[in-house]
Amino acid sequence: MNYIRNEYAELYIEEGILYFTYLPFEKFDIDVAEKIVSDRLLLQKEVSFPILCDIRQLTLPTLRARRFLALKGSVLAKAVAYWTDSMNKEYMTQFFIAVDRPLIPTAIFVSRADALKYLKAFVE
C-alpha cells in the first residue's frame, strides 16, 4: 500500500517523498490531527520520508492540534516542505513554525517545484 485517503487528507509515496494533501473540511481539532498522523505512520511502515505537505485547502488548526502536529507529526519525517498559494496560509504556517517549533527541518514554499527541490536533499 502506498496510498491512503481519509476524510481529511490524501497521502502517497513516490520517488522517496511522501505527498500529503489536506482536503477541505471544517474543524481541525486534535481528533483530526491524531487521525492524519496515524494514517501517515501506517502508510510509512516505519520508514522515514521527507514530506511535501499541500496546505492550500487547510483550515486553521486548534492550539492542541498544532502542538500535537509539531511533536507527534514529526515522527518518521526527515523534513517537511509546506506548499501554499495563499499569503494568509503562509503567515499562519510561519507562526506555527516560530511558536510550535517542529522538531525537523521545515520550510514554506509558494512553488511546488521549489518545495520538491528542497525535499530532494533529504531523499536517500
UniProtKB/TrEMBL annotation:
Pfam families: DUF7793. This is DUF7793 domain-containing protein. Residues 12-122 form the DUF7793 domain. Gene3D superfamilies: yp_829618.1 like domains (3.40.970.30). InterPro entries: DUF7793.
